[in-house]
Amino acid sequence: MNIKEAQDKVEKLILHYGDYWEPLSMYARLVEEVGELGRALNIKYGGKESKGEGDGGEIQEEISDVLFSLLAMANSEKIDIENEFNNKVEKDFEKMKGVYIKKNGN
Q1: Domain residues for 79?
Q2: How close are the terminal C-alpha atoms of the chain, in Å?
Q3: pLDDT tens digits, 1-38
Q4: Structural domain tally of the chain?
Q5: The CATH number of the domain where 79 resides is what?
Q6: Does a structural domain hold residue 96?
Q7: Which of 1, 13, 48, 70 is most open to solvent, judged by the fewest CB atoms within 10 Å of its CB?
Q8: CA distance 36 to 2
Q9: Number of helices (H) and strands (E), helices first, in the chain?
Q10: Which pLDDT belongs to residue 50?
Q11: Cα–Cα distances in Å, from 88 out to 35, 46, 59, 82, 84?
Q12: CA pair distance 103, 1, nearest whole angstrom
């Protein structure tokens, strides 16, 4: 599935159950989902201990929640995120050369 197809799927799901939230509410939801991702990462890689089954969730599920929230925000703002992403990568490709550096030959 490409990003446009994912945006369409999010649109159908949201409109099937209701409508988009106000922008600041959507932003708050995104922050909440990013926090849950941070918790899952901290439980897996950091010093945070899980409080029990289901606490912290799975990292892939939390990333999916963040992506869903981002796509919902893009839809609400009428943003073609696939186009914007491609433009961003093309524009900033040279800047990225020093950011993602392999360490220890990995």
Answers
A1: 3-88
A2: 29
A3: 999 999 999 999 999 999 999 999 999 999 999 999 99
A4: 1
A5: 1.10.287.1080
A6: no
A7: 1
A8: 25
A9: 4, 0
A10: 81
A11: 25, 32, 26, 10, 6
A12: 32
Token pair of 19 as six digits: 């409508």
Residues 45-94: tens digit of each pLDDT: 988 888 877 666 799 999 999 999 999 999 999 999 999 999 998 888 87
> Dihedral sign, CA of 68, 31, 58, 21?
negative
Phi/psi for 102 (5° steps) reads -70, 135
Would you say residue 99 lies in a domain?
Answer: no
Q: What predicted TM-score, i.e. pTM, was given to this entire model?
A: 0.85
Residue, of 25 and 104, whose pLDDT is higher? 25
